[in-house]
Amino acid sequence: MKALNIAATGMMAQEMNVNIISNNIANMRTTGYKRQRVDFQDLYNQNLRRQGASTSEAGTIVPAGVQVGSGVRVVATPRIMSQGDIEQTDKDTDVAVRGEGYVQVQMPDGRTGYTRDGSFEIDATGTIVTQDGYSVLPAITVPPNSKDLTISQTGTVQVTVGNATTPTVLGQIQLARFVNKAGLEAIGDNLFVETTSSGAALVGNPGDEGFGTMLQGHLEMANVVPVSELSSLIAAQRAYEMNSRIIRAADEMSQAIANLK
């Protein structure tokens, strides 16, 4: 009975949907996290009576055929790259990106990672790094005898060195943007890497045309909307239950046929 297999595909698809929703909810307090959704696609349709087929020598045709689908599958889990809420932290090495762009990070394997997580630290050498110790690109080193670190809206990093009366410019944090940012691959640790789908990184300074600006002492929160996720979870649960009921009904129909005498 086809209904058994069709309903099974529905249950598997909704199981994946619940997995994605649960990951969104689990990361609702993860800095810079971008939520995912599940896109579905129907499977192959079997033509039992093809529309447009001739029904007589007089040229009459079938206006509407008979098709039976094979179920559903998950075809994509794209990320929604919209801006998350900005939260004030008052920490001078925290920086939020307002608008387009990702901060570049030097990963241990030599690749460049991209992140919206601006919760940076200063390591033992004075380099501005991520929470995992990956250097922000271009690398910026803060002198040990400096104070009053400031990061401007355009990413310019300045400090006051020693007893100097004027600030010293240490460098400028740059941003990278992509033609298809949804094509970025998430690799964990709040990092993305470019792919063939995303296209190559376009690097520029914050505030340049097409690029966002930076806000020191703030962090971008996840763009997860809890109420929306919970309503999606309820809908997924109901869809899963309905598919399980179809399996039960198909089983009862098969049992009735087996008991015919």
Biggest pleated sheet: 5 strands, antiparallel
Secondary-structure element series = HEEEEEEEEEEEEEEEEEEEEH
Number of domains: 2
Q: Rounded to an integer, what's the Rg over CA atoms?
A: 27 Å
Round the mean pLDDT to the nearest integer and report it: 94
Q: Work out the helicity level.
A: 10-25%
Described by its quaternary structure, the protein is single chain
Low-confidence stretches: none
By DSSP, the count of extended strands is 20
Instruction: Give the helix tally.
Output: 2
Distance between the termini: 20 Å
Q: Tell me the overall shape.
A: elongated
Which class do the helix and strand fractions yield? Answer: alpha+beta
Percentage of residues in DSSP E strands = 25-35%
List the helices and strands and how they pair.
Blueprint: H1 2-26, E1 39-42, E2 45-49, E3 66-69, E4 72-76, E5 86-88, E6 95-98, E7 102-106, E8 112-115, E9 121-122, E10 128-129, E11 136-137, E12 146-151, E13 156-161, E14 168-172, E15 175-177, E16 185-188, E17 191-193, E18 202-204, E19 213-216, E20 218-220, H2 226-258
Antiparallel strand pairs: 1-4, 2-3, 5-20, 6-19, 7-8, 7-11, 7-15, 9-10, 12-13, 13-14, 15-18, 16-17
GO cellular component, one term: bacterial-type flagellum basal body, distal rod
Protein name: Flagellar basal-body rod protein FlgG
Family: Belongs to the flagella basal body rod proteins family.
